[in-house]
């Protein structure tokens, strides 16, 4: 039988996913405390590769991994051609537009300055609303941008809302709901269908 290769996002998503995989009886070979990046379960014929969240889609898209576990935010941000086949239901948050006050963000006459880690999602979203924007691409601590006058608003993930609150910002508009998903390579879905369905079923059985 062919191995099923699963790309697992390192960090918070990986740790939560690991608990679900273990409960489902398919994650025993993973050791998140080790520096190893490849874990082989010879009995179940599953191989896990641990990669950066933003690279999970690339591994699956290229067929190096059959499946990938990653946040919906990363799926939306990367142009891709993969199937989304299961919602783990954890890592829930909301993509939101936020700013210092409930300002009007839509105007025909004005270009809005938007700071974000997610330029593609932001471009698409405001494009669909016919709003001109200038994107300020940041790599983290996006909440700082409106405070120091770098941007009018931010587009970012909001989970508890604590980061916004601590920085005197508020949600102006909610864009999309986000959670952790299982994605699948299109060719693998055809040729390894039965094994993939088995994995999805065992994950579904332990989903809260
Ligand atoms: C994420 C996100 C927000 C924060 C939201 O940042 O970009 O800043 O978490 O969470 P909250 O609503 O529960 O406060 P992350 O922790 O990944 O750090 P970063 O800003 O450095 O990217």
Explain the layout of strands and helices.
Elements: E1 4-9, H1 12-23, E2 38-41, E3 46-51, H2 53-61, E4 67-71, H3 72-77, E5 83-87, E6 93-99, E7 112-116, H4 119-128, E8 133-137, H5 144-147, E9 153-158, H6 162-166, E10 170-178, E11 180-184, H7 186-191, H8 193-206
Parallel strand pairs: 1-3, 1-4, 7-8, 7-9
Antiparallel strand pairs: 2-3, 4-11, 5-11, 6-9, 6-10
Bound molecules: 1-O-pyrophosphono-5-O-phosphono-alpha-D-ribofuranose (PRP).
Walkthrough of the structure:
The chain is of the alpha/beta class and 208 residues long. Helix content is 32%, strand content 30%. Helix 4 (119-128) links the parallel strand 7 and strand 8 (133-137). The structure holds 1-O-pyrophosphono-5-O-phosphono-alpha-D-ribofuranose. 1-O-pyrophosphono-5-O-phosphono-alpha-D-ribofuranose (PRP) binds at residues 140-143, 156-163.
- In the CATH hierarchy, the third-tier topology of the largest domain is known as D-Maltodextrin-Binding Protein, domain 2
Bound molecules: 1-O-pyrophosphono-5-O-phosphono-alpha-D-ribofuranose
- Give the low-confidence spans: none
- The neighbouring-strand order within the major sheet is 2-3-1-4-11-5
Assign the CATH architecture of the largest domain: 3-Layer(aba) Sandwich
Q: Which percent bin holds the helix content?
A: 25-40%
Which structural category do the helix and sheet elements fall into? Answer: alpha/beta
Total of DSSP H or I helical runs spanning 4+ residues = 8
How is the biggest beta sheet arranged?
A: 6 strands, mixed
Q: Which CATH C-level class of the largest domain is it?
A: Alpha Beta
Radius of gyration: 19 Å
Terminal CA distance reads 31 Å
Average pLDDT number: 95
